[in-house]
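Before relying on records like the one below, remember that each one covers exactly one chain. Contacts with other chains, cofactors or solvent are not represented anywhere in the record.
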Amino acid sequence: MSTKAEIPVQADFTAEVQEWIEAFDQVVFAEGHEQGAELLDALRKRAREAGITAPSELTTPYMNTIPKHEEEPYPGDRDLERRVEALIRWNAMAMVHGQNKKDAGIGGHIATYSSLATLLEVGFNHFFHATYPSQNGGDQPGDFIYFQGHASPGVYARAYLEGRFDDQRLQNFRHELRGEPGLSSYPHPWLMPDFWRFPTVSMGIGPLNAIYQARFMRYLENRNLIEKTPRKVWAFVGDGETGEVDTLGAIPIATREKLDNLIFVVNCNLQRLDGPVSGNKRIIDELEGVFRGAGWNVIKVVWGSDWDKLFERDHTGLLLKRMEECVDGDYQAFKAKGGAYLRQHFFGKYPELLKLVEDMTDDQLAALHRGGHDPAKIFNAYKRAIEHTGSPTVILAKTVKGYGLGSTQARNASHQEKKLTDEGVTAFIKQFDIPIPEEQAKQGKPWRPAQDAPEIVYLQTRRKELGGYMPRREVPALNFKAPELEYFGEWTAGSKGREVSTTMGFVSILRHLLKDPEIGKLIVPIVPDEGRTFGLESAIRQVGIYASEGQKYIPHDSDMLLSYREEKDGQILEEGITEAGSMASFTAAGTAYSNYRLPTIPFYMYYSMFGFQRVGDMIWAFADSRGKGFLMGGTAGRTTMLGEGLQHQDGHSHVLASTVPTCLSYDPAYVYELATILQDGIRRMYQENEQIFYYITMYNEDYAMPAMPEGAKEGIVRGIYKFKAAEKGKATAKAPVAQLFGSGPILNEVVKAQDILAEKYSVQADVWSVTSYNELRRDALTVERWNRLHPAEPEKTPYILTALNGSKGPIIAASDYMKSIPDSLAPWLLDRLVTLGTDGFGRSDNREHLRRHFEVNAESIVAATLSKLARDGKFDAKKAQAAFAELGVDTEKIDAAKA
């Protein structure tokens, strides 16, 4: 009885559901997908209000996001584009294949580009704009493309077809030292400064930088420093690369900032270097959930057009069911093992699916395309991506690694494939119907048709319509005049007895620069999270923190003079707790002189301890990008930052900075040194266009800042100058003599040591401020090399020896860093040098105890000086030993380096 009553109710509800579906379809088809999405959001909100928990849908069925009936016709000449792509595939393969035949082991990669080729070609032919028209005439920079690094041979091969490289250049792939122009292994702006914009081959670097590049683009637009254009940032990412935390770690930033100028294209060829990315699952499902959960617009391109017919013939949904039963390890095998295997192991599970393909041969089954190899599917995905607004887009494109490479296709070894057999080359030509003369094919050499061939004419026409060739890097002439040193007179004059830190001195200089009518707008202050730690409250009030939507709230401290202020045109980039993200912003700003034709000057302030060691790879990529700017390592030093302990105290960042060829690192003790270095850096980087950048350590220790000594400028910039000479009036003819080196706040300990040595032990010591051991070493190495290569010429003298000319006695060098920093000058200072430093783990305590522990306090410097003089026979050894007790130096305590 009750059952009969329920049936009509269920029928009525089913009919009602159908009405809702029809109404929804009307909205979608009449008004578009955006309105459909808004309607769904409204219904979900209403459901939550009613206490109904709707199931989460972070993943969608394993099929294309854009259904067949919504696709737009492909606008290009498919046949000519296929021929162009085939020629590029050939030349990419011939380049790597040929190099490894004549130079075994030279390397290069074929498999990545073979999976990516169509994804790139659709972009090159229809979407990648090299320029955009300017509102004021001329043009504006176009789209930015972060290429998948291992696909570089394909990008070179396209440039070859365009006539940008000749045959010899192409055949010099990975031959950069043969007396002729070569081609670098991967995208390296340092090695090919007129071609590559972005280094990307270090996994995760490209995606992270792309996100912050898109954000920086909006920053410049909102500050009215560049025109607003439709330009996009495209990042081509390997699915295996998403395992690197840098790739996915910042994707919520793109959503928060509504970066609809950002498009990720994830090349889902299902393989890392050694095997499947996610063999027991499906990487496309995983990434869809991650990106959709982060608020990205997700477009899946899974199956090619030839699968559409099978879907149309399958009225049971069994085909999709079977697809969702398989994992990526299965899909890899389906492509690696051919049509018969696919028939047996995929379709063969269900009789209905076998019947679905009974009219297809094994070869036809093997040829079924994945979406990332189908231009029509890719075109529609790209078109929808560039038209989408309000959030970033990710396109998940399913491809085959090693696509078309015969026995290598989809196999775990495809990444290591560097050359093909003769049979493999023949099969490759047949697979893609490559239009190449038979003799050229036999030789396996690069080939391009005549410039008036239809393929070349088409390729050139498409690029002309899209604004020119890509990739391309240009550096426009910049009419930039750096301020003179006199401009910084307030800081070179000293603090008049007032105690301040070099960090506070820097903030004061920064605020002055921000006010400058000429360069103020170009200054880009960047800080991870502790702007108040660095004393930036006044600067925050002065120019505001950048916020893409402005400030939607009244800050709790709005009634205070230095309240927190966010503005849509704010100048400070306050990034939150992310050194990597901050470094990505620094990279975007530090390369803007080329990418945006705007010489922005970034100052990135951070805890020095968390700088180089945390984002060393990003800093190396910054150098590769020919970036400019100032890394300001705040709260620096192993003993200067009292209380914080092991994880915060920095005694090694200058060691790490020394490894980067274009990084000039300085450790100033006083604000006048800092001002001099900043002035010279702005001049060299932006007026003289040197492609270098600076690492400068700052400290939170307050002390009186002296005025700049006359004639000190050259020494400050080059790395050393005499700060305070010994008081000769107290000296006797036989008085022992020594030279004391100091840098950063430890210079003050050295000055104290100078007084103790003179007053208690009658030792006359000069004090030298060493602003940069690294620059002194580089200069010495340059001079040494010149001398070695020119034995018939008079020897040149390194600056360290020129500066010390006439000085006598041992050299005792003390710094707040590891001993290896001063020790780097040992080849030129020989046995004169004794180094004191802060090797070992930090401790939580005050500066007095920390410096005693690491033996860099004044007393330890005095003891080391007396010990060395005694060893040299210039001071009584027993008196030296007794002095240790007088100075409170514990000769039996544990070595700090091992404590």
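The two ends are 85 Å apart (CA to CA).
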